[in-house]
Amino acid sequence: MFLSNNVNMNNYHGRKWFLLLIFAVYRKLDPVDGLKCYCDTTGPSCQNETCETDGFCFASTTLKAGVKKFEYRCIERRSLIPIEHPFGCSTTKAKNESVVIECCNEFDWCNRKLRPELQPKPPESTPTAAAWQVVPWIIGLMVLGVCGAISFWWAKRSRKLTKRGSGHLFVVDDSLCETRHPILGTATIRDMIELTTSGSGSGLPLLVQRSIARQIQLADIIGKGRFGEVWRGRWRGENVAVKIFSSREECSWFREAEIYQTVMLRHENILGFIAADNKDNGTWTQLWLITDYHENGSLFDFLTARTIDSNTLVKMALSVATGLSHLHMDIVGTKGKPAIAHRDLKTKNILVKTNLTCVIGDLGLAVRHNVGSDSVDVPSTNRVGTKRYMAPEVLDETMDTRQFDPYKRSDVYSFGLVVWEMARRCGAMPDEYQPPYYDCVPPDPALEDMRRVVCVERRRPSVPNRWHSDPILSSISKVMKECWYQNPAARLTALRIKKTLANIGSGDYIKM
After folding, report:
1. Are 284 and 319 contained in the same domain?
2. pTM, entire model
C-alpha cells in the first residue's frame, strides 16, 4: 500500500510539472496583444494603475534637481519606430547619468518592479607626474592610428569603381554588384533625399539621419517656443533649421518626427524634414528635429516687417492652401498616405520661402486618419492648439473628436484667419499688422475670452471698406468668409479653396 501511494504521488507531480511546462510554453508563444502594464499616470488609458497595449511596457528613471523620478506607462506598437530599435525604448548611453529607459513585454505587469539605474558621474582625477610622461606616447600612437586608418580607407576606395551621373557621385561595391550608395561626403541633402527615399517620400534612413545630425554645427538662435528653441545650423556648407526640444517634451518630439516621416508626405508646400536624433552631452539629453531652413522666417515675422502686393497675396494664400490640401488628402495604395489634420495652423507655423511661396511646419499636434478602422490617431501630448485660432466647435467642445472630418474643418477655419492677416498687409494703403480678434480680446486671451467672442457673440475679424474696391481683395474676402462659417459643415474644403484661389490668380474667378 505504501509503494502504491508513492507511485501515485510521483504520477501526480509528473502531471503537475508537465502542465506547468505546457503553460509556460503557451505564455511564451502568446502574442503581445493585450499586454497589461503598470502605469502611474491619470487618464482614460490608465485605469487602476493598469494600461493595456499591443506593444511594450515602459519604465524610466529621470534625475531632476537631484531627485529621482520613476515613470511607468504603455507604448503602443504603432509608436515603435523603427520596430527593431524604437526611439521610445532607447537611451543614448547604456547607463545614462540623467535619463535611463527600459522596455519589456515578457509578461503582464513586467515593468512594475523595473528600476532603471542611473550611472553615477565618475569622480574627476588629478593627473600625476607619471601620467604626463605617458601623454606624448599616447598622442603619437593616436596620430599613427589615424594615418593608418586614412591610408586603409584610401586604398579600399581606390579599388572601387566610381561613376558620375546626373551630377551625383556613386560608388559601386564589388560585393554588392548593382547596389549603389551615395557618398555622404559628396552629396547634398537634396541629393540624399532624392536618392534614398526610393520614391516613398518617407524620409532618410535612420543611420543617414544620425550621421547628418552628428555633423551639424549650431550657428545662432532664430526662435523660441513652448517646446524649446530653433537654431540655424550648418551642415557641409548648407543651412538647416534645428528645432531643439527639452527632455520634458519627448512626446512632442517623437510625435512630430513620426508625422514628418509619414509615407508620401513630402511636398513643396510642407516643411522639408531632414533628420531626427537625440544628443546626450553627459548632463542632459537634447532632442533634435532637423528641417529645411528658410531665411525669410515665419509668415508672422514676414508680415510684421513687410507689406505685399495682390499677386504675392494670391501666391502665398494658394501655396498654403495647396499644402493644407495635400495634408488633408488620403492617398490610397501600397505606399499611400493617410489624411492628416494640422490642428495648430497659424502664421507662426508657416514659413516663407525665397520665392515668396509658403510651407506649413510644426506638425507636433497633427492627427492622422486610420482608414481601416475609421478612427483618429491623436497624439498623447498634453499640448493644445493656439486659442486665438481655435474654431468655434473646438472652443465650446462640441466637436466630435471620434471623427476625422471635424479636424479638417477646424483647419479650414484657422486658414481663413491666416488669409485675413495676409490681406491686411496688402494694397496701396495696407493696415498695420494685427493678429485675429486683436480688437476683441487681450494679447494673450484665455479660453473664456475666445469662447465669448467667437461662440456666444459670433464675431469674426472685420473686413476694411477698402477691400471692396479692389477686385482681388474682394474675391479673397469671399473665400475668407466661407472658411469661418459658424456651422463647420458649411465651410469650404481645402481642395475647393485651392481651386478657387488658382482661379483668382488667373483672373477667371474675378470675371465670374
Report:
1. no
2. 0.63
